[in-house]
Every structure is written in structure tokens, then in C-alpha cells.
Amino acid sequence: MDETAVPPEVSGEERRARMLRKRKAIDLMELSFAEDAAAFAATDEYDELGFVSAIDWIRFNCHMTSGGAASSVAVGNSMDRLPRSVEAVAQGEIGLAHVTVMARTAEALKDRFDERPLIEYAREHTPGKFHFYCQHARHAADAEGYAEQEADQVQNRRLSLSNWIDGTMVLSGVLDAFGGAALRAALEPLAHRSGEHDHRQRGQRLADALVELATGGPERAAIQVTSSVETLLGLAGAPAADAEFSLPISSKIIERLACDSNITRVLLDSESAVIDVGRAKRVVSGPARRALNARDGCCRWPGCDRPPSLTAAHHVVHWVRGGTTDLDNLILLCFRHHWMVHEGKWQLVRSDDGRMLAIPPTVRFGTVRPDPPPEPFPDEEVEAPADVGYDSSS
Ligand SMILES: [Zn+2]
Ligand SMILES: [Zn+2]
Which ligand is located closest to the Cα atom of residue 339? Predict the structure, then answer.
């Protein structure tokens, strides 16, 4: 191969310097774009051009998101109030993301806005931290306006739960800042990776956490499930079971729910006569459960540390197949790992030294889906976005 065709290597230092130069040039160009965007938004040209707003025209023709277009207009509108910020971008001291936060703050605070103390902070901190700082500044300057904005957020709250034809539920919604934080505070601890073999993507872990939150805990659930014994035994020809708010569910789910029922269940015999309601004696409670909690301490899946309050007492040999409710036949498993043992077809075996080993299902075609590949990127929390995205627009 002709060596002259290979582009010359740049050193890491050169590349970094080049990136900084490019970023500064891009940011300056963005400021220039923002000025034009604001001037354009001040006209009604968009209307003549058949668009519903200036943001809409920019979004469509400049190939931007509406949030990005709105930010540009906001920055352009506030630019004459941000001389120090513009200068700091030119000096490479802060970036466009800082200016965007600054512009939103200027817009919210109107004549109470003071650029000087903010620019000092912006020079030293990331756009995410700066956003938090500006929120404090907004509250300090206008606590009432800040509270009003929060109240507006609450007004916009909504949650919709709709079912697809296959029974899948689609959630979509908006929570106010505090409501969202409360939800995250509840979900995040449950959405950590749980021990070995956890290749779930973050979205899957959050979804599991939500279900765990809804079904977990000793006294929380009140889903009623109605099943025939044949279904529970997984006999051929058995109908599915019925559950509140759901399409009929399979015997595999029923098997797990019935394993340690924190779900109200109704068992029917072949004549549809009720033979068992609710927490039958197989449910591990009281002293037996306390002994189990003390023995296992947490979920027994290798590497999982979900506390007993978030676990079910799994019958190693299911009680419908004659398994007892003695301590020997029980182990604590969290929601996720209980699912893996029942529906996921994993096996948990005790090694000679008493540790639990998780054995993956061997048959991977047909009913068992392979684990998804690990996420390509680490999913550490990102800082709050600098663009808070409330519309200043047009
Ligand atoms: Zn179980
Ligand atoms: Zn677990």
C-alpha cells in the first residue's frame, strides 16, 4: 500500500486543540444564526410562507428540532442584553449552551436580570450546573414567578395508559418537576443493574422498576387473577387466566404470581367452582417469612442485593407440583429474578459450597428470546440539559 495515501497522523494534543477551535467557531456561528433567527421571528414572513410559526419554518427548513429552533430565537432575542456572554464565547470561555441558559434566564427575569454575577459562574461551571445556578437566581429574583411556573407545570401534568391490541400497554405523560423527581427517586434505585447476567438496557430496567414498584412490597398489590387449576398446572388445552385490566394471561405468569401471592387470586376447578381465594396457606407470611428473610437476607440471585421487602418467596418446587412451604423449598427472589426463573426459564442451583448459580436457558429458539446485547454506551446519569425547553417562541 502506498504510504503517501495515509493521512498524516495528528497528535492527541493537536486534535484536542483543533476541536476547541472548531467548537468556538461553531458557537460563534450559532450566535450569528440566532441573531438572524430572532430577526426572522419578529416578522410574519413565516405566515406568508405557509408555516404556523417562525419556529416551525426554522425547524423545517434549517433541519432543527423545535427546541433547538426556539433556543436560537430566544438567544437572538436576548443578545443585546448579553454583551459579556457574547464576548466570553468569542474568548472561548463559555459555550453556546451557557448562553442559551443565560438567554432563558434573561427572558424570565426581564428587568431584574443581571448578567454580571451569572457570567462569573458560567465561566467556571458546565452548562448543566449553570442551569441549576440560574434556576436559583430566578427564584431569588422572583420567587412568585418561579412558583407560578411550577404551578403551570402541574397544570400540564397528564398520564395516558392505552392498550395495544396485543395487550401491550403504552404509557405517555408529563409530570411537573417535583412529581418527576419523586418518580425517579422511587424508580432509580430499582433500575440499577441487578447482579450477574443483567444485560437489560436502561429503558428496560426502568420499565421493570415501574412494575416492581406497582407490584412489590408485602402489602401493596391488589390485582385480581382468576385461573383454573388446569391453567396453573400448565396442562395442554387449558384456557389462559383472567386478570384485571389485562388481556388473558398465560400459565407461566400465573405460575409466578401464584408462587408467592401478593396478588389476590381466585382458583377455579374444572367446573368453574371457586376452590381457593386469595392468600392460601402456601403464601409465605408471618414467622415463616421472617425466618426466610433472616436466612436469605436479600434476593438469592448471584450478585443481586434487593432487600427482602422487594422479594417474593419462590418455591423451588412449585406448590402446585407438591412442593412444600418449608424453608428448604423456599428462596427469596426479587421481581426481575423471579421472572427469570419462571418465564425466563433460568435455573438456580446451589453449588457444593452453598452459593447459588444461575444457569441460562439452553433452548434459545422458539419461545425464549435471547438477551439483548449490552448497551453500547454507559448509561450514567447525564447532567440536566442546558436547554430547559420551555417555549419562548414567536
Ligand atoms: Zn416462584
Ligand atoms: Zn434479584
Answer: 1
Query: What are the residues whose beta carbon lies below 5 Å from ligand 1 (ion)?
Result: 259, 314
333 CA to middle of ligand 1, Å?
8
The CA 350 to ligand 2 mean position distance, Å, reads: 15
164 Cα to the center of ligand 2, angstroms: 29
CA distance readout (Å), 264 to 258, 261, 312: 9, 7, 14
Looking at all shown ligands, the one closest to residue 318's CA atom is: 1
Structure-model confidence comparison of residues 195 and 115, the more confident one: 115
- Give the model's pLDDT for residue 6: 65
Neighbours of 300 (CB within 10 A): 23
Q: How far is the CA of 67 from the centre of ligand 1 (A)?
A: 47
Indicate whether 376 pLDDT > 60. Answer: no
Other Cβ atoms within 10 Å of 290 Cβ, number: 12
| Residue 136: burial class (beta carbons within 10 Å; 0-12, 13-18, 19+) | exposed
d(Cα 328, Cα 98) in Å, to the nearest integer? 61
Question: Per-residue pLDDT tens for 136-191?
Answer: 888 888 888 888 888 888 889 999 999 899 989 999 999 988 888 889 888 988 89
Q: Which residue in 102, 107, 104 sits closest to 130, CA to CA? A: 102
CB 316 within 8 A of CB 329: yes
Given a contact cutoff of 8 angstroms between Cβ atoms, the answer to whether 98 and 386 are in contact is yes
Q: What is the whole-number distance in angstroms between the Cα of residue 302 and the centre of ligand 1?
A: 16
